[in-house]
Design a protein that fits this description.
With 706 residues, the chain is of the alpha/beta class. Helix content is 35%, strand content 14%. The strands form nine sheets. A five-stranded parallel sheet has the order 2-3-1-4-5, with helices on both faces. Strands 18-21-22-23 form a four-stranded mixed sheet, sandwiched between helices. Strands 6-15 form a two-stranded antiparallel sheet. β7 and β8 form a beta hairpin.
């Protein structure tokens, strides 16, 4: 296909409006007529100047690339579609020249600190730029803007201040004293820290106004991009009250970082490492320090509970060796030999050759610290490694890391189907523009708003459908136009004129496309002719957990006073769990845990990434995190509990099929290594009871892979 045809194809398929299409044509001309633009090695000042001169005939206003590489800027009015134009540029450059990597430049966010006076500002700058403040991270990245500067210092201050939006300007913090209240507009100010009293209404609004310029000129719908953070002292409530007045142009939301619960006790953030780490004494700072009830540490370091377990190692040196051994075990678990995991299971760690290799690596890393003048008795590294391996084997369940890879081509797409249009009964909107005064409340009619008209009615819907990542215009153009045509035909059955059709499609095009996309997901197909199972790890080390909790840790047998609030609590006191603490979303998750404590050798609630099981949901493949994993004398089990009414839901079936397939592959690997088979249990809630047994549940609710 010729380059001109590629331009026309991209313009047509993306339904580019004329300003967008003209911009694309100009980009094509520039890249085609000046081949040096495509030469990654042509970047000297002389070569850049030659490119600029070559472009001057087509772009007479081009004065400078403003970069050390060719850079062209296309200015479009708001609402024309700059994001779509960027997509068109990328599509053209990929189709015409094979470019695969693109990046978008954006100004680096910075923080504005409001100081009391020039002395305070100087003190703040000295502190922030010191080596003691975040290890010197902000040295050279702070500007002090106040009247204490003059001459060359003032000129340099102003230069850096004016360049703060530039991507190559290092400034991350601006400290000022009454110099930036008005007349200074930037789009990359995200945080304001007022460290001076500011109860005057005008001063409040002026200071906050410095940060209200939106980075993209409009709200994006992404909260972290659209939001300005204001971090202040204990008088901040007065600022909120003032800004919340009915006639204030500023609307503020207070974010409480440590919310209080209804029971007058603060929520605690708890980091929990596996029981094996607690027994070895290798937990990191801020994490749980033991197993059993009333144990734990909050993220802030305060003790959560009282008692702690007895660790197998008593000295810091022994615990340090054990920690290094755990690191080496995690490292060696990922190594492969002859296409197979080097260590087939945790029990393989007990083999003399593997244990010797671990011991050797630990010894290589346990070098004496410089300055240690006293020679102490050699630590029994081999014995500590042996004990570490024994604790790990006893307190874990081997979960292999399994990947199913297609061996041949994969065919995928959407099957043709008839849309369900029964709920699409939109009515034309009144397009009047209404303005309302903030102070008077008076409303004024300005006239009629409008949407950008499409020459083809289906394009209103198609332009929204192709914004979905899984809908490729190249592959699905015929289908999406056919579906859009069904929708247009439906609206024609009850709308009276073309104006009403344009009104409906222009105003509700995104909603219509969303409905169509949801229906498309139900007709997605994927055809894999052949696949292979790859086991990359014989076992995966258990991941740490993070919980928020209220009150003391509850024993497992204790149901909460209000079952609907069980998610607020953390449970402990386990003897067979691979973690000292666990959390439940419902009481029907707590009850089977009592059964697992009684009937299994080991169990726990897995966290994201522990299994890497993915299920099909339309064109997407979300991760499936099951409720429980358990080990008995004869089997390893993945267990999911569901409400009886949800047992036949499509997503539940998809998860069950993915998990059952994983169990089949894991069984093949495990049994080849002399281990136990895996089974997947899908248990309805009404079968969960204290008098249930794991063997009975296994007999009734095993799901076989399809």
């Amino acid at each position: 296909m010729s380059l001109e045809n590629i331009v026309r194809s991209v313009s047509g398929r993306l339904s580019l409006r004329e300003p967008q299409a003209e911009s694309l044509r100009r980009l094509h001309w520039a890249v085609d007529q000046v081949p040096a633009l495509r030469d990654a090695k042509a970047r000297s000042p002389e070569e850049l100047k030659a490119m600029q001169d070559a472009l001057a005939g087509q772009f007479p206003t081009l004065a400078d690339f403003e970069r050390d590489f060719p850079s062209l800027c296309f200015a479009l009015a708001t609402g024309v579609g700059k994001t779509r134009l960027m997509g068109a540029f990328i599509s053209y450059l990929h189709a015409a020249y094979g470019y695969k990597h693109f990046f978008v430049l954006a100004p680096k966010p910075f923080m504005l600190v409001i100081a009391r006076d020039t002395t305070h500002a100087a003190q703040l700058m000295a502190t922030i730029e010191s080596s003691d403040f975040f290890a010197g991270r902000y040295k050279g990245k702070v500007i002090q803007v106040d009247s204490s500067r003059s001459g060359a210092e003032e000129e340099e201050m102003i230069r850096r201040l004016l360049a703060v939006e530039s991507y190559d300007e290092p400034t991350e913090i601006v400290i000022h004293v009454n110099m930036l209240k008005e007349g200074w507009d930037v789009t990359n100010l995200y945080t304001i820290v007022p460290l001076r009293a500011a109860n005057a209404r005008t001063l409040i609004e002026q200071s906050i106004g410095r940060g209200l310029r939106l980075p993209y000129g409009r709200k994006t719908g992404v909260d972290v991009v659209d939001r300005l953070n204001i971090i202040a002292h204990d008088k901040f409530q007065e600022v909120i009250d003032e800004a919340g007045r009915g006639d204030s142009p500023i609307r503020m939301q207070a974010l409480v970082l440590t919310p209080e619960s209804g029971s007058d006790s603060r929520l605690k953030s708890i980091l929990v490492q596996p029981t094996a780490n607690a027994i070895l004494g290798t937990v990191t700072a801020g994490t749980l320090q033991g197993s059993g009830a009333n144990l734990g540490h909050t993220a802030g370091g305060a003790q959560y509970g009282t008692s702690a377990p007895t660790t197998v190692f008593k000295t810091d040196e022994q615990r340090q060796i054990a920690q290094v051994a755990m690191d080496v075990i995690a490292e060696i678990s990922r190594e492969r030999q002859d296409g197979q995991p080097l260590v087939a299971s945790t029990r393989a760690l007990t083999q003399a050759s593997i244990r010797q290799q671990i011991t050797q690596r630990v010894q290589e890393r346990m070098l004496p610290k410089q300055g240690d003048l006293l020679v102490t008795e050699a630590l029994p590294v081999a014995d500590i490694v042996q004990q570490t391996v024994a604790v790990l084997v006893e307190h874990t369940i081997d979960i292999p890391r399994i990947l199913v890879k297609p061996k041949g081509p994969v065919k995928s797409g959407y099957k043709a189907f008839k849309l369900d249009l029964s709920k699409m009964n939109f009515q034309p909107q009144d397009m009047a523009l209404v303005g309302q005064g903030l102070k008077t409340g008076k409303q004024v009619l300005y006239g009629q708003s409008s949407t950008v008209l499409e020459s083809q009615l289906e394009n209103y819907i198609v332009r929204e459908l192709i914004n979905y990542d899984d809908v490729s215009y190249d592959e699905h153009a015929e289908l999406i136009y056919e579906l859009a045509g069904q929708a247009v035909a439906h609206f024609k059955t009850y709308l009276k004129s073309d104006d009403e059709l344009h009104n409906i499609l222009g105003n509700y095009g995104k909603t219509i496309a969303e409905n169509i996309h949801l229906q498309m997901a139900l007709h997605y197909y994927e055809d894999i002719s052949e696949s292979e199972v790859v086991v990359s790890q014989g076992f995966t080390p258990l991941k740490h957990c993070a919980f928020t909790a209220e009150g003391d840790i509850l024993p497992l047998h204790q149901a909460p006073d209000e079952k609907g609030k069980i998610a607020q609590y953390v449970y402990g006191g386990f003897s067979k769990c691979a973690y000292p603490l666990q959390k439940f979303h419902s009481d029907t998750e707590r009850v089977p845990t009592c059964v697992l404590e009684r009937d299994t050798l080991r169990w726990f609630r897995p966290v994201a990434g522990q299994f890497n099981i993915y299920y099909r949901s339309g064109a997407n493949q979300p991760e499936y995190v099951p409720d429980f994993v358990a080990a008995t004398a004869d089997h390893n089990l993945i267990i999911e509990t569901k409400a009886a009414k949800d047992m036949v839901a499509s997503d539940v079936k998809a998860k069950a099929d993915a998990a059952a397939t994983w169990c089949r592959n894991a069984s093949d690997y495990s049994q080849a290594q002399g281990g136990k088979p895996w089974k997947y249990l899908l248990v309805p809630h009404d079968a969960v009871a204290h008098n249930a047994t794991v063997s009975a549940l296994t007999g009734r609710f095993v799901v076989a892979s399809s």
